Amino acid sequence: MPSFDEVLKEAGEFGRFQKRVFFLLSQTGITFSSLFASVVFLGRAPDSFWCRIPGAAGLSERCGWTLEEERNFTVLPLQLGNESVSGECERLDVTWDPSVSCSSPLARYGNGSAGTLPLAPCHGNWVYEQPHSSIVSQYDLVCGNAWMLDLSQAILNLGFLAGAFILGYAADRYGRILIYLLSCLGVGICGIIVAFSPNFTVFLIFRFLQGIFGKGTWMTCYVIVTEIVGSDQRIVGIVIQIFFTLGIIILPGIAYLIPTWQGIQLAISLPNFLFLLYYWVVPESPRWLLTRKKGEKALKIMHNIAKHNGKFLSPHYSEITISNEEVSNPSFLHLVRTPQMRRNTLILMYAWFTSALIYQGLVMRLGIVGGNLYLDFFISGVVELPAALLIIVTIDRVGRRLPFAMSNIVASIACLITAFLPEDIPWLKTTVAMLGRLSITIAFEVVYLVNSELYPTTLRNFGVSLCSSLCDLGGIIAPFLLFRLAAIWLELPLIIFSILAAVCGLLVLLLPETKGISLPETVEDVEQLPSHFGKCGKRRKHRDTNSYI
């Protein structure tokens, strides 16, 4: 009986069929990255707002004031009395009733008395020039409520975290394509509800759910792509990251053309419904079917792949070798039960956490302060494009482990140098910091590929989901770590980033090299992977089959 890899080689390891599936599933990267970064535009700070004095709305209607006139009567007297008060979070502690004069509403308090009037904090009486431009103005996430905007992004990351566990397990139990399609449906429905949320609580609940389903679409499509190609073609796991970057580049254009946050939310959510059409063109992963003892279905899919690739399978292929190992209820214990699996899991968890923490930390630190938000965000996305190209050029020549380690080491050195460069040469400081951003992006993209190659088919989706969940934890911690340490010393976060990246660079050298090695089917296969430099890339025969692994 032939092994799966032998049948795949005869059917075509990356033919027309795989290229079509790859292109279709890669579009998920665009929608997922748009969801991931959407808070930048959904939560734009309003250009102008102020606190309305009680009774001002009725008086404004009676007097026929424009918003500008109402603001002049409300804010200017406040600022004349105290130049440090903006009128956004505080107001004069007065009430305007119908007896107030339209021409001089503060006349009753005497000339020049505005500066001596007591102030009161604003509670829900804000006026915005563009009331529906962002969730900030929609749900009054300003002044004392500003922390709720950070909460909205934390909730999304918590959704990603929950999705990694829940849907990662489900994809290994019930199938890749089923969970992918259900996740796409969930992202679309939750996205619509988010756009029309009547209050902030509903917004948070369905943003959390959208995070769960969003993680399901991204992780599952990634696993499907890597499981239907040959070992020499798994570079597609890196190429698919380019579509994630394309989403980052496209997002500011969408936000520029659509003036309201509801429109932006719908624009990044509705395309997920189109992915439901993949039911008719994207098959279940044949590798997964084999682990579920569904060899006939897997063989039928392989015949279909061969047909689309212009090839024919041998008529003697009536059955494909299936794994003798089946994990019906994968858990964390399955990932740490054996020495090699345990080492891989712990190192990959740390690598995910570190990559996400440093990546988001550097983005926020270099971030975009002032200037043109749309243009600056676009440029920040373009910076990531060379990362995938550099990986594509090097990873099949020198392997996975060395670029993985070197990208972390370079990021560490760049962060350290940036921390001690003087402020009077900003161009050099920015350039070195950008090198750190590029390097950690490379590390971030390599970990996706390496993670999927170091787990057996029975645990692959669960292993990738579990390890990548540390990415979401890093994303939650990053802003708190950055801003709290920066309050002590502005460059202190860079020192911490440097240490974390250096440790990661050394640890990943302990991982097996997977260049040119077929995806492991069982835990035993993982335990047999070469872990020393002298054995990198060596192929060994499986004792139960004649396939090379």
UniProtKB/TrEMBL annotation:
Tell whether ATP-binding is among the UniProt keywords: no
NCBIfam families reported for this sequence: 2A0119
Q: Which domain of life is it from?
A: Eukaryota
- One Gene Ontology cellular component annotation held by this UniProt entry: nuclear outer membrane
Chief site of localization: membrane
Q: Which Gene3D superfamilies match?
A: MFS general substrate transporter like domains
A GO MF annotation of the entry reads:
neurotransmitter transmembrane transporter activity
One BP term from GO: norepinephrine transport
In terms of Pfam families, this protein maps to:
Sugar_tr
* Family statement drawn from the similarity comment of this UniProt entry: Belongs to the major facilitator (TC 2.A.1) superfamily. Organic cation transporter (TC 2.A.1.19) family.
Where exactly are the transmembrane stretches of this chain? 21-42, 151-170, 177-196, 202-225, 237-258, 264-282, 347-368, 374-395, 402-421, 427-450, 462-482, 488-511
Q: Which PANTHER family match?
A: SOLUTE CARRIER FAMILY 22 MEMBER
Q: How does it sit in the membrane?
A: Multi-pass membrane protein
Classification via InterPro entries: MFS_dom, MFS_sugar_transport-like, MFS_trans_sf, Orgcat_transp/SVOP, Sugar_transporter_CS
Q: What is this protein called?
A: Solute carrier family 22 member 3
Give every Major facilitator superfamily (MFS) profile domain span. Answer: 100-516
- PROSITE patterns with a match to the protein in the record: MFS, SUGAR_TRANSPORT_1
Cellular compartments annotated: Apical cell membrane; Basolateral cell membrane; Mitochondrion membrane; Nucleus outer membrane
